[in-house]
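Example 4.3 (complexes with small molecules)
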Amino acid sequence: MKTKEQVSRRDFFKSAGVLAGAAAWVGAGAHTVEAAEKPSGLPLRRLGKTDLMIPPISLGTGPGQDVNVMKYAITQGLNFIHTSVNYKNGVAADHVAEAIKGQRNKVILGLKITWKPDDDAAMDAALETLGVESVDIAFFNIHKAEQVKDPAYKRAAERWKKAGKFRYIGLTTHKEVVACMNNALNQGFYDALMPAYSYSMEDRDAFPALFERAEKEGLGIVLMKTRKNINDDLYFDAVPHYLATAGITTINKGLTSFQDIQRMLEAAAQPADPDKGFRIRDSISIASTGHCSMCGLCEQACPLGLPVADVVRCSDYYMEHPDYVETAFETYRELAQAPSAAICLDCTLCEQACRNGVPIVHHIRRAESVLA
Ligand code: SF4
Ligand code: SF4
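Answer. The structure with iron/sulfur cluster bound is encoded below.
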């Protein structure tokens, strides 16, 4: 695979499908879900080889999500909703249940599987929370590349699919993302991947080849965390370029206001221009120096195997995102063993391993003082 330096502008946009105009726009097709209203006019895209036709912008369900905004999103054609029973201590899933009540046939529902692959009770409880018998696609939530190879996931996927809990299976990951995606593709049973991917990621040039491979092998790609470390103006300029990348099906994003929805739809309707795209990527790269891109290198460097990147994420949530303060506390509380001054002493190996220059030790200290 080419290194970051070896990827030329032409290579990127060739792989991104922009030069060839090869964005994966497709027309309407077989669909078990009744077509949603589409006042946005954005063409639907097929998710890999599935029969799920979804819009290029879809709805995540993070903090700050409001039931009425979700209902509005559905009326605007954003009929693919992805959720987890863990978000906001289960409140997000309750909101989804309320938003889709009476209109399940208008929504394509995605569910993150945050429980163990042998936990049938948790699977049933999640469906009950959502008020549905099944979801359209479920995503195993795995952030360790080695774990992706565990055959228990394939067995669980087959068992739950046979039992009618979901129709399609995907994998979502926000750490060791490239390696997790590679291993998932090698497993051969996934229908879609939902990676964290942002132009601010240090290893972003490793992704287009993976997206292309996924497309060739019939997997859809649902992007998440595309806004990581990107300011508003740059982000909305970047949206059409994400969507023009070969293999990308949709951007899944928590949209917490009517204005947010309209702005995303307007951004998605803009054409992607290769030169502009490169300028945006360069600007984002410069602006994101010092911010975490969730590559996971710090955790690999930690001799104690501590969840360093999670602590950086919590600290970021606390300081940078007012809507995510509660999530920062929840996530920090759930860590088995957070790094601290007493455990780490003067080690700093994680910080030395970080190629983005993230002041990790400062984040560890801050998290310890405000979140512990
Ligand atoms: S802190 Fe640095 S090394 Fe750790 S995940 Fe973030 S960018 Fe990667
Ligand atoms: S400073 Fe702490 S978290 Fe970082 S590598 Fe050392 S022991 Fe691990």
